[in-house]
Specification:
Elements (H helix, E strand, L loop, with lengths): L3 H15 L6 H19 L19 E3 H14 L2 H18 L4 H6 L21 H4 L6 H7 L15 H20 L6 E3 H10 L1 H8 L11
Antiparallel strand pairs: 1-2
Helix pairs in contact: 1-8, 2-3, 2-8, 3-9, 4-9, 9-10
């Protein structure tokens, strides 16, 4: 039987070792990837109905740690041409303005899909997707589709989900946060889109964060 807290303590120790000494963007990306890989090693081969082009839950609020946003921003900057990156920045800004203050229920009703999905409903940052996204796993795609149907209903709509996976990835998130704090970096979480906008639109945020500084408070609304 998996002891989730024991898993988290061991992972935090590994991440502390990875972030010992001078911390740069590459070290943070490796730490984020290690946290995801460690959680997936525990959850590997567990059943799930989720698949590419299945974006039903991609309307939910997603919180990330700042290094997760930094890693996603770095991938996008490396892969996208300048015009495509400018277009993405515009979509992120539009989405941010639209969904600000919406809870998950309203996001579902308004089908406020993540701006990182492509036209086919696939995640364009899947290799570096947030820990929070990785921890969500439906066991029944039809129930998932019905639960996220934007039609307002008084009926309770439940999705059979892998709760162990959710607990493991939540613990990985906490372990990474503890390691960041031990390394003198902010462990504050932020909305995925706002975190991306910070690193894509404000060049100084990257160096500010790496130096142990706090990002501007207005990023959190």
């Amino acid at each position: 039987m998996l002891n989730v807290e024991h898993f988290g303590a061991g992972l935090a120790a590994e991440l502390n070792a990875m972030l010992a000494g001078r911390i740069d963007a590459a070290a943070l990306s490796r730490a984020v990837a290690h946290a995801a890989a460690a959680a997936e090693a525990v959850c590997r081969n567990r059943p799930m109905a989720c698949a590419a082009g299945c974006p039903h839950c991609c309307v939910l609020n997603v919180a990330v740690l700042l290094p997760e946003g930094l890693a996603i921003a770095a991938m996008l900057q490396a892969q996208l041409a300048p015009a495509a990156l400018d277009s993405l920045r515009q979509r992120l800004a539009t989405h941010s303005s639209w969904v600000r203050w919406m809870d998950d229920e309203e996001r579902t009703a308004r089908t406020a899909y993540c701006p990182l999905l492509d036209a086919a409903g696939r995640c364009t940052v899947h290799p570096v997707r947030p820990l929070s996204c990785r921890g969500i796993a439906s066991l029944d795609s039809s129930c998932c589709r019905e639960a996220f149907n934007p039609v307002i209903s008084d009926q309770e709509r439940l999705v059979p989900a892998d709760l162990l996976r959710r607990m493991v990835y939540d613990e990985a998130f906490r372990a990474l946060a503890r390691a960041l704090r031990s390394g003198g970096l902010s462990d504050r979480s932020i909305d995925l889109v706002e975190g991306l906008r910070a690193f894509l639109e404000r060049p100084g945020c990257r160096e500010l964060y790496l130096s142990g500084g706090e990002l501007p408070g207005e990023l959190w609304g």
